[in-house]
Write a structure and sequence with these properties.
Length: 118
């Protein structure tokens, strides 16, 4: 996980032309979740924008939602707040809750951060 977080931070820094350090920490509660359960994934960052991605097995990254500290969440086509709820508990901390899990939700989930939209 550490290498993925570092890689995402580097990619975002390159895309935005930034030379400042991006601090990003992602976590989830260990254990297994079953069908119908909810799963929480947290993300801490020192940047205003947070982005949540889904990577299903053997597929590329798909953007789920972007979130900022001052505006409503922006969901990509095919994703909704009813399924992927984002809670910004502070400027530096966000929580994504994936509700009513099904086999279609099997994926690796990532958060990323930036000073601006990408």
């Amino acid at each position: 996980w550490e290498s993925w977080r570092a890689m995402l931070a580097v990619v975002l820094a390159l895309l935005s032309g930034e030379r400042q350090q991006i601090c990003l920490q992602q976590g989830s509660h260990p254990g297994h979740a079953g069908a119908g359960d909810s799963l929480n994934i947290s993300c801490r960052s020192n940047r205003a924008y947070m982005f949540w991605y889904q990577q299903p097995p053997r597929n590329g990254l798909k953007l789920i939602v972007s979130s900022s500290t001052w505006s409503s969440n922006s969901y990509e086509h095919g994703y909704s707040e009813a399924k992927f709820e984002i809670t910004r508990e502070s400027s530096f901390y966000a929580l994504m809750t994936i509700k009513n899990l099904t086999s279609k939700d099997e994926a690796t989930y990532f958060c990323a951060a930036s000073d601006r939209t990408v």
